[in-house]
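Lecture 7 notes: from sequence to structure.

We start with a single chain of 103 residues. Read the sequence below before looking at the structure.
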Amino acid sequence: MTQKIEGSLPTSATLRSAGVSAKVSSAGEDRASSVAAVNGGDSLKLTGEATNLQALQRELSQAPAIDSSRVQAVRESLQSGSYKIDPDAIASRMLDLDQQLAG
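Now the structure, written as tokens:
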């Protein structure tokens, strides 16, 4: 069985306008500055929780992913044999996390 593939698209396809237009940079134009969109009547209002989540996301994105001083301290205590594991503390923190995730 064979199929013929046409190389053209239907001409009736149209794009929908979202109601907000923006300036498009020409080729070779400086794109370092931000481009402002023209308001088309749409608006967005964030809830207090969404605003808090955005602030938290900004804070976390600036924080280092790994606390290297803590890693070094644990590494040294493991090598020296002085690292103590407290199973009760681990279990307690796991239960606390479970309760937080449950809501």
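The chain has a mean pLDDT of 77. Keep this in mind for problem set 3.
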